[in-house]
């Protein structure tokens, strides 16, 4: 199913279900502040999803638990047997479920605690990350625990896996988080990326192997270093399954927000995915996947966020050089997005790994030659890891309207892409939304994604135009993006204008230093003679201060000159407007 169909689905029954669930927050008014509603609704939604999933095997699990206890079985045997009996990687041994809880309103707090303690340890970990114990106490003391559980046994909150697929459940969580974010005056985009963008990223990752996967299936691993609710991993899995039923993707991810981490892990448990591969912690300072390498990396890490909190650990790891993740360089402390890129590069499988990562424009050009940011660009571009950079339309994300870019990095470039970098301008390839969501005013529909993929896969300099959509592709040698920053001095001269020499060397005039950015493709001496000496005959270069830099001047490379409107045309337009104004005034006021 393409994005367009999925979007329609989201805008109808899925959105309605999320709205109905959120309406239960009316019972929380006064007891909780609006920005706290999500702390009740999100964990209850997860728990009800678990409850509905376990319902068909609940009786069998309780009977098996009783048998195992009588036989004196050890913990490992109990866990293995009960997960097999439940049909999931989790279970609940409490006699209570949501329906039984409301049959004893007077003991709701005690019984609910028994219910929560009946879950297997992996679910208890999820509940712990929601910090749900304090929330339950507040609900119980405020006499709303019973009524909230009662709300969640109504038809609107039926979340049985046979009625709501995992993909649909992902949509519901996205919608609930968006509502939670809005009530918290927080950006929804901090938690998840809209699926149209993810589908494009998935297509870009899979493109070189699509036919191979279609014919033979595959067994792959994928990693998201800032996974949010794990929707990127979920969408990538869906795409592989669409291509081949024999495609197997084992997912790994790390997330620092405890609530979205809890949702990600619960989603993996329900799907029967690799829930143990969902890790909580700060990716930059507490890497849970040190030494791992993955086939695919797909991620939208935070940008414009400082890394002051992680500074000590990051700087210590940078000193490890190639043994760590951050050896190539450290970006400005104000923005850590390039650190995430380096983390991904380190974790790409040698010879074949592919990464799709979102960055804002600053990753293309910030930082002078020799700075950390420039050295990181040098590492990935000069190291021939960058396949393509795609500029996306503005107003595509929930939390920002600025220009954003997908970087495709690969440790297994195909022959035609070796030593080349493809830049794709897809900023004019979008469809407008009927209803904005935050800053998101446009979408990438199936036609948009297909046109971008056509430009990517054709790998040639061309402009593609279809149905009013425009995508432009340019191809460059990787060395094109490098330059040497050369210090240029002006010699001290005598009264006759001749340079004064000391030990045969010209001496620099204080305060007259300048610099030239000379492309790596150019001969430095020839460039200097042509562009500097011609205008300043007593200039000389101090090559001891040379620094190599890398930048991607994306906007300049795709700039289209639009000639100004001729002055006569402007004058005529003004005269026409004046005539219209005079006629309008006469109509309103006559000859007064």
- Output the CATH class name of the largest domain: Alpha Beta
How many whole angstroms does the radius of gyration measure? Answer: 30 Å
- Mean residue pLDDT: 91
Tell me the distance between the termini: 68 Å
Strand fraction: 15-25%
From the 3D structure, determine the CATH topology of the largest domain: Rossmann fold
Contiguous helical run count: 22
Number of domains: 4
Largest sheet: 10 strands, mixed
Structural class of the secondary structure composition?
A: alpha/beta
Helix content: 40-55%
Number of strands: 17
**What is the approximate shape?**
globular
CATH architectural label of the largest domain: 3-Layer(aba) Sandwich
Low-confidence stretches: 185-189
- Strand neighbour order, sheet with most strands: 3-2-1-4-5-7-6-8-12-11
- CATH homologous superfamily annotation of the largest domain: Vaccinia Virus protein VP39
